Amino acid sequence: MEWYLALLLMLGTVCVAMFLGLPVALAFFAANVLGTFLFINGDIGLVFMAMEFNNAINFGLAPIALFLLMGEILLHTGVAFKAIGAIDRIISRVPGRLSIVSIVGGTVFSSLSGSTIANTAILGSVLLPDMIKRGYKPTIAMGPIMAVGGIAMLIPPSALAVLLASIAEQSVAQLLIAGIIPGILMALLFFAYVIGRCVIDPTLAPSYTPDESYLNEPITLTMNFGNKGIFNITYNGTAKRTINRLLPFLIYILPLSIIFIVVVGSIFFKIAAPTEAAALGCISALGACYFFKLFNKTVKITGIEGADFSFKEIWKALIETSKINVMILFIIAGSLVFSQALSNSGATDGLLQAVSDMNLNKLTIVIIMVLVLLFLGAFMDQVSMLLLTLPFFLMGTNSFQVAFDIDVIWLMVLMLITMEISLLTPPFGLLLYVMKGIAPFNVTIGQVVISAMPFIAIEVVVLGLLIAVPEVAIWLPSMIE
After folding, report:
1. Crossing angle, helix 79-90 and helix 116-133, to 10 degrees?
2. Domain hosting residue 203, numbered range
């Protein structure tokens, strides 16, 4: 069979199966059964497929489950919501205040959860109702929440970055570190855009005076010593406004920042491998939540509450992590078999040779790969895009990355940013529908799409910057080589 017919058969089977409503894992399973039977010696290929499924279960994939668990713990114990409330107290009297809170809060939570959906859902449920109530226009209310939700795909701990590096058999540690600077740069540009738009057109986000009556309340410190009684201290001095504003930040944000430092710092300084760093992150998350519970039980400060830390919340986090992780393992197994079937069919070599014969330079090849991902992103979810393109872009010695000598970390960062953009591109951008689900009933999907457009443009600018200046992505990971 000619390579282009084999390619059409394999990709067509996947696309048709997903169009018929099959889950991603089952769609690839259908293509794998057909591909292994046709291209890997008939029924022997089916035996090979079962062996590859077994190979998908390896220790290198453990960071995915652990990073997911870390985010689920912070989500189910309610710590994430309290962290957003602490940021809300710090930021006041700036144009587009609530939109700025969503960007800062989303960036902080991205560094703790690694989940784009959880990030968008939490920010939307906490901040969007207040934005709508205060007359914020959809473009400046929903847009920042969706855009900053996607940053979780770049800033560690990013489960998708671990998945990408694991399937491509590349350094997980370097890819996690490589996403930090582009992620922060993107957040800063979102920040500048919102302030600039609100200064030019104040009607987008009508100014208001936040309710800061709590700042004038006396600060009461209650310490419970059990049988020895309760000890109270009340402070009512002139500095109470400043203290009331800063206390939530000191109590919630600083302890949570330790989680990020533990995870990223242990990888950057080669103290721990990504798997061990993820395990340390889970322990740090449990420790932080337990600290908040003890704080709430032993010490009470006016206007500040602790976390709901109990075995019930931890059990919920474990169950949700297990559900997502099983799905991911099935998808990884399917991708390994899919790649082997494509390779044995000659489709990968044939496509690579056809592109090589066109005498294109490295930059043109990279731009073509990005455009392919942008096109697929309008119709597919991120994992499906990875599974379809990795056999050609990254996996093995007959990939575009090897043939055209493309820096692998740089290329993977470009792929992550492109997939982040695809979260917001119609008609099937995932975060568009997450936002539609949490927005008021009178908000249309058209308004959601329009609100995302300026932020898509910003993400494309960052993508273009990384293509033009690869050092933005590869400088930091080069420090840990």
Report:
1. 50
2. 61-210+237-316
Query: What's the CA gap between 46 and 40, in Å, rounded?
Result: 8
Please give the Cα distance from 159 to 254 (Å, whole number): 23
What is the pLDDT at residue 460?
94
**Is 48 within the bounds of a domain?**
no
Q: Evaluate whether residue 52 is within a structural domain.
A: no
311-341 burial, b if ≥16 CB within 10 A, otherwise e?
Answer: eebbeebeebbeebbeebbbbbbbbbbbbbb
Q: Which residue bears the tokens 């990888």?
A: 267
Secondary structure class of 360 (helix, strand, coil):
coil
Q: How far is it, in rounded angstroms, from Cα 378 to Cα 423?
A: 8
Residue 45 lies in a domain: no
Q: Is residue 396 part of a domain?
A: no
By the 8 A CB rule, do 454 and 143 touch? yes
The 10s digit of each residue's pLDDT in 321-337 is 888 777 777 777 776 77
pLDDT in tens, 61-118: 788 888 888 888 887 777 777 777 778 778 777 888 889 988 888 888 787 776 777 7
